[in-house]
Amino acid sequence: MNPDAPLMTPAEAAERFGWRRVLAFGAHPDDLDFGAAATVAGLSRAGVEVTYCVMTDGDAGGFDAHTHDTIIERRHQEQRDAAAHLGVSDVEFMGERDGYLEPNHRVQSQVVALMRRHRPDLVIGMHPERDWTRLQRSHPDHLAAGEAVVRASYPAVENPFAYPELLDQGLEPFHLRWLLLFGGPHIHHNLFLDVTGHEQDKLAALRHHLSQHPDVARMEEFVLGTMSELHRGAAAPTDESVRYAEAFHLVEVNAADTISGF
């Protein structure tokens, strides 16, 4: 972990970085809830508007072959219910096939369109770099989702000549300020958000994804243990209370001193 990375609450981060509108991308239903649900809960409670975009339908998920013909509808509803618990009322689905996501121009143009329509201060996304310490974090769809979002964030979303058909739809370019990535290698963690008090919100959101959890108790133990370990690694050594954190790679895409193209 990065010992110099700051630790603050989601509300403090929103105030410090000017986050009022957030657009969050996940590859599958439940990805955002595993990676950032407690943070999303904290942001929503602080008055930040959060929109979810799920890039695939999660149609390759689940464990019951007898009900698999309804898995897309079930996973969509699971995600809506989980998001609603966190204060997120707007959930969009791109409808890509689970396991087949690629960061191609067809997908990337959809991401750019969503960014231009919502014009967020912050985009939350999956990290495009593989984490070799826990390969499950780096499902190929996760990496593809991360790459598509990063490519869209610069330069496509701010370039009027990228996907010119979007201009005909009234989707004007804009400069995205902040990108917050989760699920990547620990070496890139440069922001820890203290989500103590929202850990149960995260568990409640994940419980809505029951089609994906054959052992709910073990899942919850793992999630709480991971968040507790992240906080211990980020907090002062004298803090012995049980507290929880989520970790991210924060990227300032366009800073005050940024020159277009540099």
UniProtKB/TrEMBL annotation:
The keyword Zinc applies. This is N-acetylglucosaminyl deacetylase, LmbE family. One of its GO terms (molecular function) is hydrolase activity, acting on carbon-nitrogen (but not peptide) bonds, in linear amides. Gene3D superfamilies: LmbE-like (3.40.50.10320). GO terms for biological process: glycoside metabolic process. It comes from Micrococcus terreus. The keyword Nucleotide-binding does not apply. InterPro entries: GlcNAc_PI_deacetylase-related, LmbE-like_dom_sf. Keywords: Zinc.
